[in-house]
From TrEMBL:
Single biological process term from Gene Ontology: tRNA wobble uridine modification
Gene: cmoB
Species for this entry: Budvicia aquatica
Protein name in the entry: tRNA U34 carboxymethyltransferase
MF terms in GO: methyltransferase activity; transferase activity, transferring alkyl or aryl (other than methyl) groups
Organism superkingdom: Bacteria
Pfam families the record matches: Methyltransf_9
Xref: HAMAP family: tRNA_carboxymethyltr_CmoB
PANTHER family, per database record: METHYLTRANSFERASE (PTHR43464), TRNA U34 CARBOXYMETHYLTRANSFERASE (PTHR43464:SF95)
Subunit structure: Homotetramer.
Amino acid sequence: MIDFGDFYRLIAKSPLSHWLDTLPPQLSAWQKNSLHGKFKQWFNAVEFMPDVMPDTLDLLNGVTADSTELSEGQKRGIETHLRHLMPWRKGPFDLYGTHINTEWRSDWKWDRVLPHISPLAGRTILDVGCGSGYHLWRMVGAGAHLAVGIDPMQLFLCQFEAVRKLLGGDQRAHVLPLGIEQLPELQAFDTVFSMGVLYHRRSPLDHLYQLKNQLVSEGELVLETLVVDGDAQQVLVPGDRYAQMRNVYFIPSAAALVNWLEKCGFVDIRIVDVCLTTTEEQRRTDWMISESLAEFLDPTDNSKTIEGYPAPMRAIIVAKKP
């Protein structure tokens, strides 16, 4: 079982201490009642991973660790355990000679985000829908005091814990198997990230309020999501699927998204980046072998999805809580 005790001790003397009123029983109930059928198999891969203290560690330019102490056999064993945790969607990671070539080039997204946000040094950060935790490690590399990720997908939690073990047990980042709706109004984070989540929410304004309720006064929201071209009234409501994804409810224009943020009480709202998602940024690899973006686009017209909607375009918007 995953032991969250280190995290509890870490936040006990911090502005997050009141979270301890609800979090331990919540995670205890999750461990008893909600484990995925493959969780034991995934967690075994974490347990069998060697405890390593890297000689070289770089979280500023990527997520890279290596050690001269490991034999080639040990390095092959690490790759075997990491492959038991496929598919890997967010990354990449370079760990002791193993390059995890993930579906998403999340480093490209990070390079688009970082120049436009408040410096992360010393900040307490929440990343909603963090996946494997790739961006948490980049936040730590940028100087974050504490980076907390939430994501209900249990495979992602095991991926994160495996990487953490290979990074020497670093306690500056943590992942909790929760959705944003399970968090109380903590009002304790200096920066909150929501990247690739908003379009999966049935009520996008409720999601924006939930994000706002996690921020301190004058805290910063970093929102990255699908958008469409159009004016402030333009919102796409897809049918059963969008680019083969289920549970895509609302895709606004960037201007409409600014309106939504204003309606929720955010200020200093800036659209800092808008770009089309390419098949170089999201693609099938030998670490994620099922279909990816190339199969989700119209083969005769890459400006459209196979359902006929505009191809994926993503915006980054930065805003402040008053």
